[in-house]
Amino acid sequence: xxxxxxxxxxxxxxxxxxxxxxxxxxxxxxxxxxxxxxxxxxxxxxxxxxxxxxxxxxxxxxxxxxxxxxxxxxxxxxxxxxxxxxxxxxxxxxxxxxxxxxxxxxxxxxxxxxxxxxxxxxxxxxxxxxxxxxxxxxxxxxxxxxxxxxxxxxxxxxxxxxxxxxxxxxxxxxxxxxxxxxxxxxxxxxxxxxxxxxxxxxxxxxxxxxxxxxxxxxxxxxxxxxxxxxxxxxxxxxxxxxxxxxxxxxxxxxxxxxxxxxxxxxxxxxxxxxxxxxxxxxxxxxxxxxxxxxxxxxxxxxxxxxxxxxxxxxxx
Length: 316
Fold this sequence. Notes:
This protein is mainly α. Helix content is about 75%, strand content about 0%. It contains 13 helices and no strands. Helix 3 runs antiparallel to helix 5 (about 95-120) and helix 8 (about 180-210) runs antiparallel to helix 11 (about 230-255). It is globular and about 55 Å long.
């Protein structure tokens, strides 16, 4: 087996992001949903083997999206990040398309199988829509003003939302008594984390657009920094950063009376501190390397936010 080819394939699908997706969904099930439901002696609808298939479907669709994104971004990537180009350099374009199709079919197929076995409605259709949205994002919408950023952020939030969707949209509802209180609590926590994922992803996507402005501008993309300019885009990012920081700070003040000191300290050090650092450095950032560093710290805050799910294991 050609190790260079294998390494290139893992780079193409962005395996670190796929691990992030699997970790996010696993933490949500085992640290939030299961403790919440088991306290009321309820078994989650999508559990065990079917949850494994759900994670595999999410990972497969994300991997397919990463492949098709690099396929359509080939010329731009030769300018923005030539050292990371894989398609047509190591992996031929036709093989990239084949892997995209195969992974997409796996993700869609697993969704319909989960529908059939668990009574969830339209998960297969939702996965099919996700595949098409990722394709149109990569081929067309990514170059449009803001809509590509919003779409990517929505799909990031969907990684969390889909788990609660499987609990609230299935044919077995009539047989599961006493779930309304648990579903209500689950929905609130879901939208808390999904909202966090959406806004942080939106911020990071715009920062990446500032990082890639040279190549994007050459090939006619209409991203936020190209249409608005660098300084107005920084103001846009700063506003969203302040929204996140202030909201998280208010939440910490709210939970302090409950004695949740470990979670408050964790949030301050691993989420609020990196985001505040980004907010401070943003006005002084002008080069691609500057924005790469900001993007890294935003991703650190996003990972820390997802890992904070583990604190809920002790609350339910």
